[in-house]
Write a structure and sequence with these properties.
The protein is mostly helical. The chain is built from 9 helices and no strands. The radius of gyration is 23 Å and the shape is globular. It starts with a helix and ends in a 7-residue tail after the last helix.
Length: 312
Amino acid sequence: MTEGEAQKQPKNANDPKFERWILGDAWDGFWRNFPVVVLAVLAMGLVGVVSLNDQVNQAKMVHTVSVNGFYLKVESSKDAVSFFAGFGYIFVSSILVYTMHSTLLDKRTCWAAFNKEQRNKVTTFLKRVSVMVLTYLVISWILQQVFWQIAVENGAGAENSFGAIIFALVSVPSLLALSIFGFLIISWPGSVFLNGDQSLKRAIARGKKTFWFVIGKSLMVIPALLPLQFIMMAVLLPMMNSLFLDGSGVPKTEFEGFSFGALVPFSLLSSIYFAVAFCIAGVIVSRALLVGEARLGSTKVTSETTENLAVK
C-alpha cells in the first residue's frame, strides 16, 4: 500500500467489525446469562418493594402525625432506606454489566463468569465501579453545597430571579462536565478483561476516542426500546392507578387500602425493564472498549477479543 492510498483510508478504518447489531448481542447475552438475570431482577424487585413501601409508610405517617420531632425521624429513615436502595441497585446493575462483559470479551457466561479463576476480575470490576460512584457522589455533594450557597447569597426565590439565573449558569455547566467525565471513564471497569494497560489514564484516552461512539449507539438503541416501554407502561399504568387513585379517580390522601403485596408486581416489572437496559449498556461499553483500543493502535487486544463478540 502506497502512502497516498493509506491517506485515503477512513479515519476509523481500524475499528473492529461487529457481525450483529447491539440488540442481537444483548438478546443472546440476556438468555445465556438468564439465571443471573433472574436473580438480578428478583434482587432489584426486592429493593424496589422495600423502598416503595418505606415511602408509602412515610406518607401515611406524615398525614396522620404532625409532630416536628416525628418528621425528623421520618426524614432520617428516608435517607437510610434511600442509601441502601441506591447501593442495592448499583451493585446489581454492576453485576449484570460485568456478566455481559464476560460473555462478550471473555467467552464466559453465567456462573462461569464468577468462578474462582475469575474472582479477581469480579472484585476489581466492582472496586472500580465503587470508586466511580463514590467520586460522583462526593463531587455532586460538593457542587450541591456550592450551588446552594450561591443561590442563598444571591437571594434566589420567587421575588428575585437573579439568584436563580446565577444558580443555573453555574450548575448546568458543572453537571454537564461531570457527565462528560463519566462517559470518558466508562470503559475503565471493563478493562479488567484486557491483557494490556488497565490504568485510569488509558481509560480516559479510550474515552476521548469513543465518546461519540457511546453517545451515538445509546441514542440509536432508544427507539428500538420504545415497543418494550409501551408494553411496560400499558401494564404498569393500571397498577399505578390502583395504588394512587381511589375508585372515582381521585388521588388517595391517606393511602388507605395500600398493601405491601400490591407493590411486588409493580417493582418486578420495572426491574425487568432495567435488567434489559443494563444488558444493552454492557454490550455498548464492551464495544466501546474494543473500538477505543483499536483507535489507540492496540491491535493485539483487538485481534484477540473481537471474535468473542460474535456470540454463537
